[in-house]
Automatic annotation (TrEMBL):
Residues 146-254 form the DUF8021 domain. It comes from Achaetomium macrosporum. This is DUF8021 domain-containing protein. InterPro entries: DUF8021 (IPR058334). It comes from the Eukaryota.
Length: 263
């Protein structure tokens, strides 16, 4: 037991908030310059796994080669798992909303990049709306004495998603909970969703930041996309801000196979 504990604490000591912030800022710089794999070669393992919308692809064919003018970015940092999550919004040229999870190895090199790349035709996509609503929200660090534990933040995120398939689950929504869904804003505490059964959200990948009270979950989304209503469903990620154990903000990025998921 002791040995396992020592090994575990050694592995998680590899990254710090500062190292994750620095690498994530460099990733954002690479995304804006569009130099493709050479833009991140100093940051990543040579064999970094690159995924867009849950499909492994050639990194040189993805959004890192576009050269995106970023209007807005927000990041969270998981110093336990050594990962970061970043959302960017671009309104000019080809508009995008992109959510990216960077995972780091024990040498602080990125070993996996996964992005949900949303653009015109994806669920409620509206890049201008995404920037405007994002800017109105307050994601300041939570004062240290008021921070929720990692377990509380994760449980709030899971309850939100579990309730989609089980109406008996009551997620801890704040009275003023708001959801930025694509570029549309649902406010006033109306955050609960529920879908027809069978509805089971699988393949959850978490990034959790206690300082910002945030969890991001990449996951499969059954039902919504009319062309892939069952497993695995379409690709989604939800970024959730938790304050005092309650869900305050939700940002959903959902990729659609057909315009607005065929709805
Ligand atoms: C990301 O946002 C911060 C401010 O929140 C800004 O200083 C920085 O330049 C932005 N990065 C990019 C690449 O746009
Ligand atoms: C990727 O490269 C790293 C370092 O070169 C190595 O440790 C790791 O095993 C490689 N992973 C795969 C999947 O080949
Ligand atoms: C949902 O799917 C997961 C993974 O396939 C499985 O472990 C779990 O039992 C399922 N839950 C329900 C309620 O079907």
């Amino acid at each position: 037991m002791l040995l396992l504990f020592l090994l575990a604490s050694h592995a998680s000591a590899a990254c710090t908030r500062a190292s994750l912030q620095e690498a994530t800022a460099s990733y954002l710089a690479a995304l804006s310059t569009g130099k493709g794999p050479t833009g991140i070669s100093a940051l990543a393992e040579g064999n970094v796994t690159y995924q867009e919308n849950d499909a492994v692809m050639d990194i040189s064919k993805g959004v890192l080669s576009v050269g995106i003018k970023i209007d807005f970015n927000r990041s969270i940092y998981d110093t336990t798992e050594c990962a970061s999550y970043t959302e960017i919004v671009a309104t000019t040229g080809h508009p995008y909303v992109i959510g990216t999870r960077l995972a780091f190895n024990a040498d602080n090199k990125i070993n996996k990049i996964e992005s949900n790349v949303c653009d015109t035709g994806d669920w409620l996509f509206n890049a201008k709306g995404s920037v405007d609503y994002n800017k109105r929200e307050n994601w300041d660090p939570i004062p240290e004495a008021k921070r929720d534990s990692r377990a509380v933040i994760k449980a709030a995120g899971d309850a939100y998603i579990d309730a989609w398939g089980d109406a008996s689950i009551r997620p801890p929504f704040a009275k003023d909970c708001a959801r930025l869904e694509g570029g549309a804003y649902i406010s006033g505490g109306n955050c609960k969703l529920n879908f027809p059964p069978p509805f089971n959200v699988t393949n959850r990948r978490y990034t959790i930041d206690e300082e910002l009270g945030a969890v991001d979950i990449f996951h499969n989304f059954p039902f919504l996309d009319a062309s892939i209503p069952r497993d695995p469903g379409t690709q989604t990620n939800n970024l959730i801000r938790v304050e005092g154990g309650q869900i305050k903000y939700i940002h959903e990025n959902t990729v659609c196979a057909a315009k607005n998921c065929g709805r």
